[in-house]
Specification:
The protein is α/β, with parallel strands linked by helices. It is built from ten helices and 14 strands.
């Protein structure tokens, strides 16, 4: 439920509304709307069913939230959220780029990749230290050693670090080294993990599950937010369909859908979304045109020798070409005042 205050509501009137909510054992969150303040109510709204909130001084009306995801809903939070990751803002209108190898293979490989992605304009270095692979015989990652390399690469380049956390037990280690925790597609509905990353104090990148609906995805975000962490960024990385040419089917309509349903920022991963490096460039451009707040791309110094996801990784040259086009497109959209809602 949200309580919409009159534009001229006083601080005392807002305080009175909050007191009624908290007295009923519910939580109140005050948010600034474009012209008026909104008080969000978290908890069982039946606890205030007998309270005539709509006739309280300063109240314009109360509105029930129809979505099962409350905190992630745009009904609850009408304005777009901007997530700050160690000074880098995601969702403020300038696309961010997270780039790097699928897996941290060695210090030398990671440092070379970090220099490449930094030089072309990325703000984040991505790289997996813990790798949940389909086959138990595939490379599983360097674990804490890989995390240390990521932290060293951050010190060398100034890039922020985003890396995947796969188990509750690994959260403590990942928090120590990373700026942002990634919950991968295979763990999108690992509710125990979602609750714990909600308590970790670091921003979270939540990838869409292999065959998850948008509703399921936003409810997964709700688990993190309900545990106390509002700093969630969504990542569309393709879903599994009957199509076999691409690794997944990249659902760019999810960008527009999420922008309508939720205030959370959303980025797109065209590398996992297609599984083919040749398709990363056009899908990256399409994602920005659709209104995505950023991109996640796999870049490897030598994709032919990559221990994982080589076929979808960009070479340094291809990556630089993609980056140049992304920022040209973004600038064009700004100059022409084109937003995702216009497309």
């Amino acid at each position: 439920m949200v309580i919409i205050m009159n534009p001229d509501a006083t601080a005392a009137e807002i305080k009175s509304v909050i007191e009624v909510i908290t007295a009923a054992g519910l939580e109140a969150k005050v948010m600034e709307g474009s012209q008026q303040k909104i008080v969000g109510v978290i908890g069982d709204k039946t606890k205030v069913a007998d309270v005539a909130i709509d006739v309280m001084p300063g109240v314009e009306k109360s509105v029930a939230i129809s979505k099962s995801f409350k905190l992630a809903s745009r009904e609850f939070h009408p304005q777009n959220s901007v997530v700050d990751v160690a000074g880098i803002k995601i969702g403020d209108g300038t696309p961010v780029v997270m780039a790097g190898p699928c897996a941290v293979e060695s210090k030398e490989q990671l440092f070379e990749a970090a220099d490449i992605v930094k030089a072309a304009g990325a703000q984040f270095l991505r790289g997996g230290a813990y790798k949940p692979r389909t086959s138990p015989y595939s490379f599983q990652g360097l674990e804490e050693e890989g995390l240390k390399y990521l932290a060293e690469a951050r010190e060398r380049t100034g890039l922020r670090v985003v890396t995947e956390v796969t188990t509750v037990e690994a959260i403590e280690s990942v928090v120590k080294y990373a700026d942002m925790l990634q919950v991968g597609a295979r763990n999108m509905q690992n509710f125990g993990l979602l609750k714990e990353v909600g308590k970790c104090g670091k921003p979270v990148l939540l990838k869409r599950g292999l065959a998850a609906t948008i509703d399921e995805w936003l409810n997964a975000a709700e688990y993190i937010m309900n545990a106390g962490n509002p700093n969630v960024v969504l990542c569309e990385r393709g879903i599994r369909t009957y199509e076999t040419y691409t690794r997944n089917t990249l659902d760019l309509s999810a960008v527009a859908a999420v922008k309508h349903l939720s205030h959370l920022p959303i980025i797109v991963d065209p590398s996992h979304g297609t599984g083919k490096w040749r398709m990363v460039k056009p899908m990256a451009f399409a994602a920005i045109a659709a209104g995505a707040d950023g991109l996640m791309m796999e870049v490897h110094p030598n994709p032919a020798k990559a221990l994982s996801d080589g076929p979808q990784s960009l070479t340094p040259e291809n990556y630089q070409e993609v980056m140049a086009g992304i920022y040209k497109l973004s600038q064009f959209m700004k100059q022409e005042n084109i937003t995702s809602m216009d497309i």
